[in-house]
Amino acid sequence: MITLQDLDLFLIEVDEPSEGKSHGEPHYGGDQDWFRHPFYRRAGCGATTTANITNYLASRGQCEGNCYSCLANVDNTRHWSGFLTHMETVVPHVHPGPLGVLTPDFEKGALDYAKKMGASELRTVALYVHTKPRERPSFDETVAFITKYITDDLPVAWVNYSNGGVANLDNYHWVTIVGIDAQQGEVLIVDNAFMHRVNLKEWLRASTLGGAFVALY
Question: Using CA atoms, how far apart are residues 47 and 120, in angstroms rounded to an integer?
């Protein structure tokens, strides 16, 4: 398994555990259920993923300006209320529409947010997984794309428009990839306060609607 250099930067302090979590269990990244507005609680996964990524980039010093709008203490922990402030600063830019957040909108929104925060040099690159299986990148091509950016200590956003029945992956949902195990065909993701493995190889085979992978660099 190849991972980002400091996964602890995703740890968030909470007053009450998120759904499915126990007291004292670690929470990784933002939880879209923290949004105050019910619409964003349903459809705020793109903004939450952007918040996870910009938080990591800022914490690692990989973008100019203040990508993380509520910096926390020197122990690199963050309180959920501060992270929520960050999420709610991001969501006007990575704003879900009737079809959620499509990949071009995610890229544009993330760059708009970065520019607002003074990180105008930030760029995006995407690998699309088409609806038609014969037009999709191969497993090896997909692994190579993800591995390149994880090795460069850059999280990768992943949207799937159908999960193909794969465990630990919601339908039509954005998550943050923080590691990859090419031999096992799995990625390690951060999703709504959880960190767990997902079978990438099976998703590429079984997803009926495809999706995309996006890196900010």
Answer: 18
- Collapse the DSSP code of 111 into the 3-class scheme (helix H, G, I; strand E, B; otherwise coil) and give the result: helix
Cβ count within 10 A of residue 139: 14
Gap between the Cα atoms of 136 and 12, Å rounded: 36
**Are 146 and 3 contacting, i.e. CB atoms less than 8 angstroms apart?**
no
Residue type, 1: M
Average model confidence (pLDDT) for the chain?
91
The residue among 127, 118, 143 whose CA lies nearest residue 54 is 118
Residues of the chain with CATH 3.90.70.30: 124-216
The rounded distance, in Å, linking the Cα atoms of 110 and 198 is 24
DSSP per-residue letters across 127-166: EEE-SSGGGSPPHHHHHHHHHHHHHTT--EEEEES--TT-
The answer to whether 213 touches 156, Cβ cutoff 8 Å, is yes
Q: What is the pLDDT of residue 75?
A: 39
Alpha helices in the chain (DSSP H): 38-43, 45-59, 80-90, 103-116, 139-151, 200-206
- Name the architecture of domain 124-216: Alpha-Beta Complex (3.90)
Which residues of the chain carry a pLDDT beneath 70?
Answer: 62-77
* Of 172, 83, 65, the residue nearest 121 (C-alpha): 65
Structure token digits, residue 200: 């990438």
Q: Return all residues near 78 (Cβ < 8 A) that are at least 6 apart.
A: 11, 12, 13, 55, 70, 72
